[in-house]
Design goal:
The protein is an alpha+beta fold. It has 5 helices and 5 strands. The longest helix is centred in the first third of the chain and has 67 residues.
């Protein structure tokens, strides 16, 4: 057996030389791509760790906020502390006066439960439909106010209203 190895020593040497040459050629051709893949993997691991830390931080903030709010909200329902009115009117003048008068008409809803008002939005509409609102101080022009939208956010009732001009005999004049 040792004799056969001496006989094929040259073939064995050529085979080993071919293997080493092929491996080095493979590394030369693909080493840059493999290195870039390793760098990309490291960057993804780093980004993943940063996102995980951010998630943990946000979860801690959520638990803090829920612990702070839970004693207050368990005993007290949210109430309306502020009313904001947005007027959608084709008239150039008088929108600020309409806004102020609508806010004064809706003052009875202050310190009321937001759930109560959101479950009964027709109450807001009925308060506004009862009375035409004068645009000027002489009450020569009046408008009828209609509720478009109601929004509740952090103890604030925001209401969007549209207006139609009312003639002297309480007939509405549609805006063009």
């Amino acid at each position: 057996m040792f004799r056969q190895a001496k006989k094929h020593r040259y073939s064995f040497t050529i085979f080993l030389f071919g293997m080493i040459t092929g491996a080095s050629l493979f590394l030369f051709l693909y080493s840059q791509k493999i290195d870039s893949l390793y760098l990309e993997r490291d960057a993804i691991y780093f980004a993943n760790n940063q996102k995980y830390k951010r998630i943990l931080k946000l979860e801690q903030e959520i638990t803090k906020l829920s612990q702070q709010k839970s004693p207050q909200t368990a005993h007290q329902p949210e109430t309306i502390k502020k009313i904001i009115v947005e007027v959608d009117s084709e008239q150039r003048f008088g929108t600020e006066m309409i806004k102020a008068q609508v806010e004064s008409l809706l003052e009875p809803f202050l310190d009321k439960s937001m759930d109560w008002v959101s479950n009964n939005p027709q109450l807001v509409e009925s308060v506004l439909l009862k009375k035409p609102i004068p645009i000027d101080e002489e009450s020569s022009q009046t408008v009828q106010v209609y509720v478009k939208y109601l929004s509740f956010h952090q103890q604030t009732l925001k209401i969007w209203v549209s207006t139609e001009e009312v003639s002297n005999n309480n007939m509405t004049i549609p805006q063009k």
